[in-house]
Amino acid sequence: MVSPLWQHLREKYGGGQCSIPGCGAERFEISQYCQKHALKKQYWGHPEAAFVPLSYYKTEILEVTKVIIKNRQHVSVNAALNFLNEYIETSKRVASGELPANLFPVPAPEFIMSIGDSRLLNKNGIRDLEPLLIRMAGLHLYCDRNEGGPNVRDHNHRIHLMGHVLLWYAKPSRLKGRGIPRRKVGAYIYENLSKFLINVARSVGREIEGAIRFQKVQEMDLK
Ligand SMILES: [Zn+2]
Asked: How far is ligand 1, taken at its centre, from the CA of residue 37, in Å?
């Protein structure tokens, strides 16, 4: 049974070609895009966006790993790890009804609650969030370098990717279908961790500048 409003919207906005240049496929429902591009928009925040695999930001992972390991005792690294731990713990307690959701408004607790029991344990069986933080910082740096290009379309795409990094640790069975809250989770991470992520990226930048300076110094004429 199609509602009159839906019928009206379809008549008004439906039909015609997908608005992505060169696509030519028929529009999907009342979207300005075809089904393929509409789904990409829904999944990744941009009609031409896609998943960015870990292999794309291997270099960045190595760069931020050095910074984070060097600063293991630094208050900002600890605060960032604490934030992630709190997010997971609060989600569990909200999802189980122990804490009221209106007073503890963490995004997507029903997804985040399943994190931490399988994929985050180190070889001693203790939850270790450092690899997750490193992935986030590596992705952030990669996005800094690639935003606006074919792999990181825009800021919205970046937020979806960041949400995905955390959601990847959730139970795989939860990560099927269209309703994955990547944007909500990514926005929450950026809201809380962006200063830290920017700081890590700056530290990587300083290391690179230092190395370039060292190269140049070596070429300077001697007396
Ligand atoms: Zn299309």
From this structure: 5
Q: Mean pLDDT for the chain?
A: 91
Neighbours of ion ligand 1 (CB under 5 A): 18, 20, 23, 25, 34, 37
Rounded distance, CA 137 to CA 152, Å?
15
3-state secondary structure at position 35: helix
Which segments of the chain are extended strands (E)?
none
The whole-model pTM stands at 0.87
The tokens for 96 are 């189980």
Phi-psi region of 221 (alpha: psi -120 to 50; beta: other; left: phi over 0): beta
What amino acid occupies position 40?
A: K
| 35 Cα to the center of ligand 1, angstroms | 7
Gap from CA of 188 to ligand 1 centroid (Å):
30
**Alpha-carbon distances of 116 from 31, 60, 193, rounded to whole Å:** 37, 24, 19
Q: What's the CA gap between 206 and 177, in Å, rounded? A: 42
Where do the structural domains in the chain lie, given as residue ranges?
Answer: 1-48, 51-219
For residue 4, what pLDDT is reported?
82
d(CA 160, CA 167): 10
- Total Cβ atoms within 10 A of residue 30: 15
Q: What's the pLDDT at 30?
A: 83
Å from CA of 56 to ligand 1 middle: 25
End-to-end CA distance of the chain: 88
Query: Residue 4 Cα, ligand 1 centroid: separation in angstroms?
Result: 27
